[in-house]
Amino acid sequence: MKARVVSSPWSSFGKLASTLLFAASCELLAAEADHSSQPGITNPPAASATNSQQGTVAVATRPKPSADLAPELQVAEGLLLAIPKSAFGKDYLFSASLIPQAPAATSSGLAGRIVRFELFPDGVDMYESTKGFEVTEDLPARRLLANFAIVRQDAKLVVVDFNQGMRRVFTMGWTEGGAVPISEHDRVLEVPQGRVFEMRSDSGRLIIRQSVQARNRQTDQNLEQRYEVRYFISPYQPGAAEGKEPSGSDLRYTRFFETAGQIETGTGRVSSRIARFDIRQPIVFHYSANTPAELAKLVITAKEDAKRLPGKVDKGYVEVPEFKYDQETRINAAKALDDKAGSFKGWAEDAKSDLNTQLKNEVEASLNLAHFKDFKVSLLSRSVRDWYQKQQDILALLPPAPGNPTLPAR
Predict the structure, then answer these.
(1) All structural domains of the chain with their residue ranges
(2) Which pLDDT value is given to residue 51?
(3) Least enclosed by CB within 10 Å: which of 80, 163, 191, 403?
(4) Helix, strand, coil proportions of the chain in percent (round to 5)?
(5) 258/272 Cα distance (integer angstroms)
(6) Model pTM?
(7) Helix or strand run (H / E) with residue 224
């Protein structure tokens, strides 16, 4: 992922979101760092903060990590979890998504947790932070989430079996904000059998995929459903800005951007906060895999009716339309039509050739290419030539229908 400056992320995306309904997610930069390699250990890039705050300008400058920031977790022997000795007692962000394996493997995001690992002679325990769950800090509490058997350890690392330790799936969703009872936060599915089949590091975050049988002990106890549980674990660094408690008027806008309720120390009152993007990091919006092709086509072809770009073709004067969205956005919309990474296969196949023809006809009409028997790009003036090349870049992502010729390249 490349560092870059993102200007006015909400205003620029607002134009796109109103049309596209694209899913938005925030990815934070991770600067690469040198790590001393050890046998059987996969060393990921350096960690990045995971916090959010809304703003108008996002500069890709990574805040300096705190001296107390936990080290990154590592992968040992492919499917085992390696915990650095220096990680014990430090905070990690632990989140997950639950993916049913029938009838459609679409995921539901689960509520995130702040966790710590503690080392004991016979295993490693994972505890959830008690912050937000206690009315007083004078009475010690320990919220045990899981226990992991130790496979091996040395002076630097403790390698544990994550698969055998994770025998519960917490079911509270990430969208359940406000005054949610603690009982909902602790509700689980039992996992009689499970198998971690993938474990990898990505930009300072450990990703673990586990296939499970899950059983609800409250209702229909003989029903065992099949899920994939995808876990994400990264060093936790609190945001610099203090969270704002939403007022009654704010609730109209917060929606998914309201955090889960927490118990206030001393008063016992349950309150939530407004989630915000951290503008110190670049905000990257992703196209949903089920983006309808018609919406992607609209982004590629939408024009600014009042704006025209003047230029010349040979000795003739022309004006070509300026498109509404910037080139990068249009390129990404074209990529969303890729049936392997973007829209559904049926939508993509039908849309790509039609859109190629539509855009090709737009270019030919704007430049009066029908009047040239032997058109060459060198006939275009510089400004129009750049415009033409941008359309070529998009057409290259949209294969023409069989028998439909392409425009000449630069």
Answers:
(1) 62-271, 293-395
(2) 32
(3) 403
(4) 20, 30, 45
(5) 7
(6) 0.61
(7) strand 224-235
